[in-house]
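To the structural biology subgroup,

Please find below the input and predicted structure for Bifunctional NAD(P)H-hydrate repair enzyme, which we are adding to the shared reference set this quarter. The sequence is reproduced verbatim from the submission form. If anyone notices a discrepancy with their own records, reply to this email rather than editing the shared folder directly, so we keep one authoritative version.
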Amino acid sequence: MKILSADQTRAADQATIKAEGIRSDELMERAASAFSDWLMDRLSLLTPHEVHIFCGPGNNGGDGLAVARHLHLAGYAVQVWLLPADKYSPDFTVNRQRLPTEVLCTHLKPKKLPSVSPKATVVDALFGTGLSRPLAGLAAEVVEHLNDSKATIYAIDLPSGLFTDAPQPSESAVVQAQYTVGFELPKLAYLLPQNARFVGEWEVLPIGLNTEFIHNTDVDNHFVNTAFLTGRYPKRPKFAHKGTFGHALLLAGSYGKVGAAVLAARACLHGGVGLLTVRTPAVGYTILQTAVPEAMALTDPATDFVTELPDLKPYAAAGIGPGLGQEESTANVLCQLLRKAAEASLALVIDADALNILGTHRELLDDLPPNALLTPHPKEFERLTEPAHDDYHRLELLRDFCARHRCYCVLKGAYTALGTPEGPLYFNSTGNPGMGTGGSGDVLTGLLLALRADQRLSPLDAALLGIFAHGRAGDLAAQQTGEAGLIAGDIVRFIGPALAELVS
Ligand SMILES: NC(=O)C1=CN([C@@H]2O[C@H](COP(=O)(O)OP(=O)(O)OC[C@H]3O[C@@H](n4cnc5c(N)ncnc54)[C@H](OP(=O)(O)O)[C@@H]3O)[C@@H](O)[C@H]2O)[C@@H](O)CC1
Ligand SMILES: [K+]
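Predicted structure (tokenized):
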């Protein structure tokens, strides 16, 4: 799914109105009906609900007025509160006129705000994509009042006070919604940790925005769901053999951290790799051969950490980092690997300690071969770049980093973001908080290594599929283990089923 900016959303609305020959208030009616149906599915008519709808002067307020009409006609006790303004949008005015006279509709006044009980249902229709500056004055006062009320707040399109695709000043007033319901496509604002306490849970409802316009619009950000991945993961051919899916090399493990190598190796095998060789220090030999008999062990001459790079000729892809340690001789191995990878046409996946080595030897970033895939969490990413002021800035750093180094970079988080050399970012939709557990990242590395070794997949598709399947495997595992009980090995067990769902 494409993520549109505020301007692009407006243009999509206009394109739909033009293509279908409808009036803008008809499109608003679709949005309001979809929102009302969604809300009424959640509010039982059997329990009396005090529903307060707070409307601003633009089309977000127009949506709120139309929702008030729908709820009233369905039998809910609704009260509407209007924010006074110098001008109101035409579709606000149309829906103001359509509001049945029985619905109580009152202008808000400073210092005389209505009391809203903690049991009330509040619909926040003050501001949406048309917010042009941080809230101040009466609007800010209303927002603080709603946040203090502890009522359940449902925001239409955006929690009021939040910009669609830019940060707002940290002290500015923003509605803290329990649910945000948008239309057709997700917004960037929904996906960032700094906005989680405002957005709450979110959902988007279809309103039939013009598909041709959306298809032809170039965007900076995408949201990756199952539909987005259709056709990207081909069925294994009938006459396939282990060579078809590539031979991968995993450089991982050091004394006390051989488990990371085991997890990554298992994930790589369950990720469908043809052959896997693991370069590990001597201390890992017996552990690896016992825990992962399907992998070949290529033991390093050193006992406790990897010190020598093996011959790269046999391999289609190499993964380096899980449990590797940061010894100087290990750093040397990374340095050689980077320099030889391009010549050996080797796809690279770089994680964990290998990223930390890059963080302390930033000059090595210039040696990254094209299309290398890095998988940092935000702290590791900071070591490769600079501290970010906020989540939006971090995304800009990600975009710059990938363009400068012609690489792919998986910035791990609740909505993991994949940066690409071409510029667009891809936000993942799978995964759960249970996956914040030791070894989860090693599993991702192993899975990505398998997909990068698969010669049928482009670097972009391998990365998208790997990130999505990793999260989905975690979701499937959590259904059995619960989120707290989830461990990295559980994710590995569900990689196969998660990938099977993606075959098309
Ligand atoms: N277009 C369509 O067909 C559809 C649109 N839809 C809905 O429309 C919403 C977008 O509507 P919108 O563009 O009218 O913007 P909206 O967020 O209501 O606010 C604009 C008003 O607020 C004012 N204002 C801004 N900032 C302010 C501030 N800090 N403090 C005070 N005032 C401020 C601003 O005034 P100005 O900036 O000109 O001073 C203007 O008067 C969208 O989120 C969705 O809900 C859906 O129905 C689907 C179909
Ligand atoms: K709103």
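Summary notes: The chain has two domains: 2-219, 244-502. The pocket of potassium ion (ligand 2) is lined by residues 60, 124-128, 155-158, 160 (CB under 6 Å).

Regards,
Lab coordination
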